[in-house]
Amino acid sequence: MPDLAARVLAEAQKGLPLVPRPFLAIARAVGCSEQEVIDLLEDLRDRGVVREVSAFLDPKKLGYRSTLACMTVPSERVEQVAAVLEAMPQVTHNYLRDHELSMWFTVIAPSEEAIRALLDELAGRTGCGPIHNLPASEVFKIRVAFAAGEMTDDR
Prior knowledge:
Alpha-Beta Plaits; 2 domains
C-alpha cells in the first residue's frame, strides 16, 4: 500500500476530528490536500479495502439501550430474514454463525421495553422465534488499529 494511503488510514483510525472539515484536518496531519484524502478514502472504499468511514456513537451515552439478539433461521431463509433485519433502522448489523442459533444481530432502541417490542415484532415478521435477548452485563471496549502498511492489495 502506498505510503500516503497508509498514513491517511493510520490517522483516520485515531478518530475523525469533530470539526467542520475533518478530512482537511487529516490532510494537514499527513501532509497532503483535503481532496487527496477524500479521493483516497473513496478509492479504498470502492476497491473494498475500507468498508466505511463513519461515526461510532455510544447508545448508552445518548440515552438508548442496546442488546445482542439471536435466533434459529433455516438455511433456505437466511437471505429473506437478513433482508427483514437490514430494513430496520434499529438493527445495527447482523451476521451468521455456524450454530443452531444461526442469525445474530444487535438492536438499539430508546428503552428495554422498546427492544422487547421490536424483538417480538421481528419474531412475528420472520416466523423464526423465539428470539433470544442477550443484553450486555458489562461492556468492554478495546481500541483496534490496523497497520495499513502491512495490508496487501492483490488487484
